[in-house]
Amino acid sequence: MILGIDIGGANTKLASSDGSHTEIHYLPLWKSSLLPEVLKDIASRHKPEAVGVVMTGELADSFSDKDEGIQYIARAVEEAFADVWYIDSSGTPAREAKRSAAAANWAASAVLAGRDFGDCIFADTGSTTTDIIPVVNGAAACAKTDLERLCRGELIYAGALRTNLAALMDRVELRGCACRISSELFAITGDVYLLLGHISAEAYNCETPDGSGKDTGSARRRLARVVCADIHELSDEDLISIAEQAKQKQVSELAGALSGCAGKWKLERVVGCGLGEFLIEEACAKAGLGFTSVSQEYGHDISVVFPAYAAARIVSEKCF
To answer: In degrees rounded to 5, what are phi and psi of residue 274?
Structure first.
């Protein structure tokens, strides 16, 4: 078995190269991380011939800089597995985890998307961020670092689970007025999409802002606090409206970024994956772009761990 492992700041995901096995582990690296122990457990259970590794977790603020983060991740991986390959921003496997491996999980995905789908915009909305990668002539045409991609509109720091609603909008329409919202961490996008039925309680795998439940009743209470209220002051219709407005704000921003990328690179089709694949589909409809669902092509379980799956495929095909 060849495994791909995508080590993020919040989640560590894995997939086998044949797509038969996937896992997601919530492992926030900014806390006391269990990453070394979890990787050793994965190695013990699966005994892979080799692993392909991509990462974004080096940015966690528990590290003084990216180099320290890369070294920590590489040490944990190499203590667990005997045969390790790292995929860097060029999309090619290498034995050493260099700085070019930082925040490069999109590169593995772009290689596979370009080969399987041709020229397209590859978009991945995960729990925390959204990658928007132009794929031209089988290769990623985007910038290579997160800083550069943020500057070019190829990275949106908003996802389908962990994003503070105050980072998406500063007011909502409520009872006929533009109501400003609190900047406290009262609710996250996971609450929005749980309430609207787009994600399950099981998919809501991070902590809730208030430490309470992952049910729709708890999500309602958290959303009410966004406008400094509680569920005795707001109706269900009010709360659904707040959630829908947050969703539409996210869809609109994503549609604008996709439109800009499509115009720049003369691309007409988006290949979308991730926990927030539904957001990409709606954004494509808004932007008038074609949409190909990774869930429909590979299955939902692969869609939510696509960079790990791509890393496994790259290693299995290029290194063996």
So the answer is: 105, 175
Does some domain include residue 236? no
For residue 173, what are the β-bridge partners? 178
DSSP letter (8 states) at residue 235: -
The rounded distance, in Å, linking the Cα atoms of 56 and 58 is: 6
Which domain range does residue 280 map to?
A: 2-159+253-318
* The amino acid at 84: V
pLDDT band, very low/low/confident/very high, at 319 (cuts 50, 70, 90): confident
What's the rounded Cα separation, in Å, for the pair 160 and 170? 18
Block residue for tokens 């009262």: 186
Residue whose C-alpha is closest to residue 160's, from 128, 187, 137:
128
Q: Is residue 28 a part of any domain in this protein?
A: yes
- pLDDT grade for 103, boundaries at 50, 70 and 90: very high
Count of domains forming the chain: 1
Note whether residue 146 is domain-resident. Answer: yes
CB 286 within 8 A of CB 253: no
Domain containing residue 274: CATH number: 3.30.420.40
Measured CA to CA, the distance from residue 171 to residue 177 in angstroms comes to 10
**What number of CA atoms fall less than 13 Å from residue 214's CA on the CB side?**
14
Q: What tens digit of pLDDT does each residue of 245-282 get?
A: 999 999 999 999 999 999 999 999 999 999 999 999 99
Q: Are 26 and 206 in contact (CB under 8 A)?
A: yes
pLDDT at residue 320 in the model: 79
d(CA 293, CA 82): 35
Tell me the DSSP string of 242-272.
HHHHHHHHHHHHHHHHHHHHHHHHT--EEEE
Map residue 156 onto helix, strand or coil: strand
The two tokens of residue 130 are 């959204």
Instruction: Report the pLDDT averaged over residues 217-229.
Output: 98
- To the nearest whole number, what is the mean pLDDT of the chain? 97
Model confidence pLDDT, tens digit, residues 276-300: 999 999 999 999 999 999 999 999 9
DSSP annotation of 264 reads H
- Per the domain annotation, does 167 fall within a domain? no
Separation of CA 173 from chain center? 29
